[in-house]
Design a protein that fits this description.
Blueprint (H helix, E strand, L loop, with lengths): L2 H13 L10 H10 L5 H13 L5 H5 L3 H7 L6 H19 L3 H5 L3 H9 L6 H11 L9 H9 L9 H11 L4 H17 L26
Helix pairs in contact: 1-12, 2-3, 2-9, 5-6, 8-9, 10-12
The protein binds a DNA duplex (20 and 20 nucleotides) through helix 6 and helix 9.
DNA sequence: TCGAGGAACGTTTAAGATAC
DNA sequence: GTATCTTAAACGTTCCTCGA
């Protein structure tokens, strides 16, 4: 069995199912994917709750807001001015190309849609892949800082390698399956927060402890 | 002209320092 | 030993600068 499947089984056995991503609709998930850039999820929840409280969490309503109004509502998520611009770019894309309907977007081929998403201002690889996987059920693996840190500390791939190289590793060795990719990425986040922390990693209690690379102590 | 590298953005969090 | 305060680093992406 390849190392990535071993890691998945160990993490799943230890943490159990994570049931990601929180969000009532694909649109809410997409908004969350943009808002969660560079911040923790609890801040994103506050921002989304603000939008819900004002009954504005829909493509049409949000598209009608000014940048200032939007920034004020999403303030708890941090980088609010930057993220307001990014949300507006995404909303314009959604309205213009898919008539404001996430289900129209979901009908697009995954590869083509990813290319289009990456052309939207403010959407990079991780955000695009989060939208594809969690909002639109496309079998695309999401690579984040936790994934890179865990793989590099276990000698599977150096942390400095490009995003696409990490993703290719998963696409080549783990069968393309939405629920599997969903669960696996969520387990990486859980393990990264619980054990494989940036500073002072808790390798002793980690379920992946027996797979540690000799360069575990390397700063990543 | 193109690619690489670094700064900037706003907030949280962990770690270290200080006071009591 | 505990509580409080301060500081530095991290997070993902865009944009600008610099060198080849």
């Amino acid at each position: 069995m390849n190392a990535l499947l071993v890691i998945y089984r160990k993490l799943y056995r230890y943490f159990g199912p994570q049931k990601w991503w929180p969000g009532d609709t694909p649109f809410e998930v997409a908004v969350g994917a943009i808002l969660t850039q560079s911040t923790n999820w609890s801040n994103v929840e506050n921002a989304i709750q603000n939008l819900k409280n004002h009954d504005l969490l829909s493509p049409h309503d949000m598209h009608g807001l000014s940048g200032k109004e939007l920034a004020l509502l999403i303030r708890p998520a941090g980088y609010f001015n930057v993220k307001a611009q990014r949300l507006q770019s995404f909303l314009s894309f959604l309205m213009n190309d898919y008539l404001g309907k996430m289900e129209n977007m979901a009908g697009e081929d995954a590869g083509r849609l990813r290319t289009k998403l990456l052309r939207v201002h403010g959407i990079g690889p991780e955000t695009a892949d989060s939208i594809l996987l969690y909002a639109l059920d496309k079998p695309v693996f999401v690579i984040d800082a936790y994934t890179k840190r865990i793989l590099s500390r276990h000698g599977i791939m150096a942390s400095g390698r490009p995003y696409d190289e990490f993703q290719g590793l998963f696409h080549d060795s783990v069968r393309r399956n939405v629920s599997l990719y969903n669960e696996y990425h969520a387990l990486f986040v859980r393990a990264g927060k619980t054990f494989c922390r940036r500073t002072n990693p808790l390798c002793g209690g980690c379920p992946l402890n027996d797979m540690l690379s000799p360069i575990c102590s390397e700063s990543v």
